Amino acid sequence: MLRILLVEDDPDVAAVISALLEYCGHHVTVATNGRYGLELLLQEQPQLVITDFMMPMMSGLEMIEQARDAGYQRPIILCSAVPESHLPAHRGRYDLFLMKPYSASTLIKALENLQGRV
């Protein structure tokens, strides 16, 4: 079981992803914007973060940048409908990119691949 922080501003997407992750046995905390996500990340130190790119208050990339600068070393998955090649330079700050929409099996496989780094 992983402690996962899901940062997603779309309530429907957040509900589906958190339900899937909880069904798989993980504990999920949801933040609805990047600023709140960063606050929870720094307070709770989850084992893994899954974040959307485009969100209010602070983008996923900005949140990741600030988390890494604050010393957070655990895996981060960035998700977006924007192709990775069109995102601003990330300088390797996230561990995995998932293109939206992604399947449940793609997300589960990504978690399995990153679990050894938790």
CATH class membership: Alpha Beta
Poorly predicted runs are none
The residue fraction in helices comes out at 25-40%
- Per DSSP, the total helix count is 4
The percent range for strand residues is 15-25%
The CATH superfamily bears the name Response regulator
- The beta-strand count equals 5
Characterize the largest beta sheet: strand count, sense, and whether it forms a barrel: 5 strands, parallel
Number of domains as seen in the coordinates: 1
Average predicted confidence as pLDDT: 93
- Read across the widest sheet, the strand sequence of neighbours is 2-1-3-4-5
Quickly give the structural class: alpha/beta
Rg over C-alpha atoms, rounded to the nearest angstrom? 13 Å
Give the SSE string.
EHEHEHEEH
Shape: globular
Topology-level CATH name: Rossmann fold
CATH architecture: 3-Layer(aba) Sandwich
What is the CA-CA span between the terminal residues?
11 Å
Account of the 3D structure:
This protein is of the alpha/beta class and 118 residues long. It has a single domain (3-115), classed as Rossmann fold. Helices cover 39% and strands 20% of the residues. Strands 2-1-3-4-5 form a five-stranded parallel β-sheet, with helices on both faces. Helix 2 (34-44) packs parallel to helix 3. The model has no long low-confidence stretch (mean pLDDT 93).
Which tags fit this structure?
five-stranded parallel β-sheet; alpha/beta; 118 residues; single chain; Rossmann fold; 5 strands
Quick rundown:
With 118 residues, this protein is α/β, with parallel strands linked by helices.
